[in-house]
Amino acid sequence: MTKISGLACVGVLLAKTGLKKRLNNAKISKMPEPDIKNGDVAISYIGLLCQGKNDFDSIEPFRQDKFFKSALGIRKVPSNPTLRQRFDMVGSTWNNIILEESALLLKKAGVKITPCYKDYVALDIDVSPFDNSKTKKEGVSMTYKGFEGYSPIMHIWVKKVME
Q: Per the confidence metrics, is the pTM higher than 0.85?
């Protein structure tokens, strides 16, 4: 049994998108025919992100992992330098493809997106502890960071555009 068995579900979802094909068709001027296709590079990184790993070095243990390749539908897993260089080359040029395919997948899955505030949907919510331990402010308490302070909730909102 592998610790990354949840990637099989990720692979099924990714297979329902046109992400791999669209990224493979997105040509890079400095690299017209890459040895490792753009789709494999991006999906390998998505595989890392789904495990809570965002550094390129984390790809190395998965380069020979048959389950990782099979679950995500990857022909060849890139090395750390290939991953880093490819993302440096493309910059933000893949952003629209990734966002469009994400929205299409949500739509295909019938996900109901409910605005929380007017026409806005919370994209990310997190607390940010503020250290007030050397102040005389009222209402401070122990934060998860181990100091006295406040932990207001920060929101990133996006306008709902998908129907």
A: no
